[in-house]
Every structure is written in C-alpha cells, then in structure tokens.
Design goal:
The chain has 109 residues and is mainly alpha-helical. The protein has a domain of 34 residues. Helix content is 57%, strand content 0%. It contains four helices and no strands. The longest helix has 24 residues. The protein is elongated and about 80 Å long. The N and C termini lie far apart (63 Å). About 17% of the residues have low confidence.
C-alpha cells in the first residue's frame, strides 16, 4: 500500500491506470477485518475516487467508474513497453572511446 501511495504522488503512471489496476485489491482489503490495513486501503480508495472524479469532470462528464473502466480497458490492451521495443540502428549508439595509448602518447620515463 505504501507503493500505491507513492505512485499516486508521482507522475510515472496516470492515476486512472493505477486505480484501474489496484481497485479490486484495495476493495478486498478495505472490506476485510477492521484494522490498520483496512483503514489504509479505504483511505487510498477514497483518494483515488476523488482524484478520478475531479479528473473526469475536468475532461468529460463521465462517471468515475466509467472513466476508470476505460483506463483499465486501455491498460489491458496496451503494448508492453519493456518487450515491444524497436532496436536502435548501429548509427544511433555511441561509439566506445579507444583507451589504448598510441606510441606518440605513451608517457616517457
């Protein structure tokens, strides 16, 4: 839950995507036995719902569930950025520097 809270404060992923992925698990935790975990999960859920609601009203009048559902659907069918990469051409890579000394550059003793 700390990682989820940290992601909420960062700009690494959109809040809609984070909410779409974590909503089910947070809901299960918040409905569990009363305690610190359930309270924290409930707080995170409420924050996400408020953020999604304010985000959806500023862009379009869709309800919270609809805007987060569309993010979840988009996330499920999105390309995997780690495995679907296009390799660089040889020209785009940096060339290593030749670190061997040339005879004219050798230190004189």
């Amino acid at each position: 839950m700390c990682a989820i809270s940290s992601l909420m404060c960062s700009d690494l992923l959109s809040q809609d995507h984070i909410f779409a992925v974590t909503q089910k698990h947070l809901q299960e935790l918040s409905e569990g036995s009363p305690g610190c975990v359930a309270n924290k999960a409930t707080k995170i859920l409420r924050q996400f719902e408020a953020l999604c609601r304010s985000h959806s009203t500023s862009k379009n009048p869709l309800p919270v569930a609809a805007s987060c559902l569309s993010a979840k659907t988009t996330l499920e069918y999105a390309d995997d950025l780690l495995t679907n990469t296009v390799p660089f051409s040889e020209d785009s890579f940096l060339k290593p520097i030749n670190l061997t000394l040339q005879p004219s550059q050798a230190p004189k003793l």
